[in-house]
Amino acid sequence: MSQDCVELALADLPPELxxxxxxxxxxxxxxxxxxxxxxxxxxxLASGPRQLDVQLGTQRNExxxxxxxxxxxxxxxxxxxxxxxxxxxxxxxxxxGTPLDRALAELWxxxxxxxxxxxxxxxxxxxxxxxxxxxxxxxxxYVCIERVLEHLLAPDPRPALRATIAQCRDxxxxxxxxSHVGVMLGRAxxxxxxxxxxxxxxxxGRYLADIAWPGDRERAVAAARLLLDHGDRxxxxxxxxxxxxxxxxxxxxxxxxxxxxxxxxxxxxRLVDEGLAAPxxxxxxxxxxxxxxxxxxxxxxxxxxxxxxxxxDMLGVFERRLSHVKLAFGAGEPATAKAxxxxxxxxRRLAAEEGPSRPARAIRPAWSVPDAVDRALGFxxxxxxxxxxxxxxxxxxxxxxxxxxxxxxxSDEWVxxxxxxxxxxxxxxxxxxxxxxxxxxxxxxxxxGPGWGYHALLPADADTSAWVLRLAxxxxxPPDPRLARTRxxxxxxxxxxxxxxxxxxxxxxxxxxxxxxxxxxxxxxxSHVCVTGAAxxxxxxxxxxxxxxxxxxxxxxxxxxxxxxxxYATLRAIEALGGGEANAxxxxxxxxxxxxxxxxxxxxxxxxxxxxxxxxxxLSLHAVLAGDGEGRHERTASRAxxxxxxxQHDDGSWAPSARLRVPAPSERDPVASPGTTLTYIDDEALxxxxxxxxxxxxxxxx
Length: 702
What we know:
702 residues; alpha+beta; ten-stranded antiparallel barrel; two-stranded antiparallel ribbon; 25 helices
């Protein structure tokens, strides 16, 4: 990367992050360094010195440029030993068919600069080298790591250090992997740093015990939980010499690459609350990302030259992104927090591009209900993120100007409570363990006020809160003060007519601030049949049941506010009304309607889906099984079961078809105003698959 590009990266850097002198030193140092493709910065978040450290990085597609730059420096001035080792590593990386060629994804170089000293030559720069290996490279990953260590630690192979890294590798639980290795070539004690990715939160403590890490494991687990409460991934950063050292770092990443994921602010606020970050620095971090184009600033000649060989519809831009935050601590040491952000030149097409489409899932019919349940359960357990959450409906709460599939807008609390409730109906030990872990996550999640919401950045709502209480009841959870407060919260949303409102009026302002949808929010804060049905099983008194009886339509069904398919509200009402004599007629009419929705081939046709819907079929089946005590519709139910079995995908899921309806906040009747209503599908198929499992749950117990 040229000096001009580094200056571009530091343009308009908030003064809270670095002094002009610190920025100038970085620019001077990178002018001396080899040609890397990207630049990254590290800032300590605590109050105190405003100084940046710098990392220079190269990906696979830019590796030839780095190798040539180092070779030219060697021919011109010679290379110090650390840089010569890196040159040999790059030469193997650029050689086709080598382990490094197959498995090494990125190489980063962190420069240790002495404060107040200027780097006059490459020899003045002390590098620490980090490599990222490709997860998909399989066994080549660890051959690649061995070769990296042989290059960077030459001539000393350090067998004890390599044994420690192998120990970290061998103890990885399924799905976890040694993703990075770093060697501090410029430091007196040139140990290594081992990064381990994708260790599930539930197994972090066990993993640290298995590798005989000598630090405070409870403290490490608490730090991982704090970060994964909002972040998508946490990487464990372990220091190794002849064995593992008690110091640990935990790096928290977000899947979103462009702009600022809304959860960044939540994580940084937590660090401020913990006394680990200064609020003026965290605010500055959030202001830094952005995109520069040739129309904004004078463009470096190097980038202009590169653009000449590109198609006419390709524009080179300079993008500044946030990367991750890091917590670190050692034995008896206070924790420290850092933030990492970077910049690089990327190509964008002038015409809008659709995001990558999900490959179509192939259908592999199940041969029985137990077979289908086992496969679906495997799919659901594997679908949890590292923190243990289920996330779905990625575009539900996304403002119009934000890219699709930004994880910060996906639901985790609502989806996790619903999915776990479905799994709790299964007579399977893995399902019960997963549901208990889910309830523990929900109880540990901090939220403003009682209850739970769509996700932690939105206010609590009655629907999500009801599903959490239903989960706790299914698991016979012991009394808990938060569960008691949540019950009172839902009871407080029962209106004069007996229906349960989704949101309290006080939620309107925070909803509008996050969603950027203008109010009023009277529609969202009014009573809804689908929410009342979900909550009324919690024994809220006779009023919600009376509300449901009066809301039943002439054909025996109910229609909901938040769902396109009336089967959802109808099932929830059947569950709430139960089998008592006072409600027997209402339940019977509802079951007759649900059975009539199941066609001759066993499916339910949905207008929104334009044909058969797995979601609507599973709901109708569940409604018949829940309310048909005399078995009058046994054949109809069997047809629905057979059709659902025939539609299962080879990965264990069913086609996403849960059509979540989101009316305008002021709208009380979404059916009457389709022009102001948006519809979202469960992108990950979690809601649909959970709904099928809930319908099959009773069948597996027979």
